[in-house]
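Weekly modeling sync, notes
Attendees: S.R. (lead), two postdocs, one rotation student

Agenda item 3: backlog of single-chain predictions. S.R. asked that every request posted to the team notebook include the full sequence so nobody has to chase files. The rotation student volunteered to paste the first one in as an example of the format we agreed on. Action items at the bottom.

Example entry:
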Amino acid sequence: MILVIGYLIVLGATLGGFMLAGGQLLLLFPISEYIIIIGISIGLMVIASPLSLLKNIVKKIKISFRNQAVPTSDYTDLLKLLYELFTKARRGGLIAIEDDIITPKESPIFSKYPSFLNEPERVEFLCNSLKPIIDGRLKPEQLSVMLQGDYDAKEEDAAQPVHILNLVGDSLPGIGIVAAVMGIINTMAVISVGPEKVGQKVAAALVGTFLGVLGAYGFINPLAARIKLNNVYEMQYFAVIMKGVIGFTGGMAPIMAVESGRRAIDPAFQPNAEEVETMVKNLGTTAG
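Predicted structure, as returned to the notebook:
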């Protein structure tokens, strides 16, 4: 919603100022200029991106229209889930959570937190973090290197849509010039008709430049910046998992491992230590 409000402000200021200066709104809508600019922009994305990345771009754009990329409740659910999981493992050994990790959809712990269980990427990251330790294929002190590698790969993957949108944003002023030049070519073809027709054609051509600049600096580049910020919040979610798992497998008590993860959350969404203590007490288990 915030993104929509921002776009409406940009449009309102642009179109409002134009009309207050005596401009006619219909002059800003020559269909040919829109076809050229939008078509080239989409083609640019198709050329620069594999299909999987195009799908990811669409997904990231949809997320950017939320007020908050990762709701605060998702972070608190995760902290509670980790505490329950670590407490169970502390009492019965890591083998006690093997079934939860192997078949997460059937886990009584995971099923309590749909914000986690309904996101395959989140489930996969947590389960893949614990499997090597449960299987005995990896020592706890070796886990941090592996998880940091997974985290870095996720961070790079999340950044790809931003790179593509920045490419489109940086290209839009040039694309606008292409549309304007094509409009001038059309103008030259009708120059013998008279000044009124020439004026209409020139005005339509200039709209191409206008659309390119406005699209870049009023829409695409801010969208890329918003997605980049959302990526930070999404990666913090995985950082909570990573730090919590590393802390617990390294010998921390469940509550301290959760505290380690809590500190990775942005202060704007981060529950304080007292709130976390209260949350885990309400789970019916004893803080370890």
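Discussion: group reviewed the output briefly. The radius of gyration is 26 Å.
Action items: rotation student to repeat for the remaining queue; S.R. to check formatting next week.
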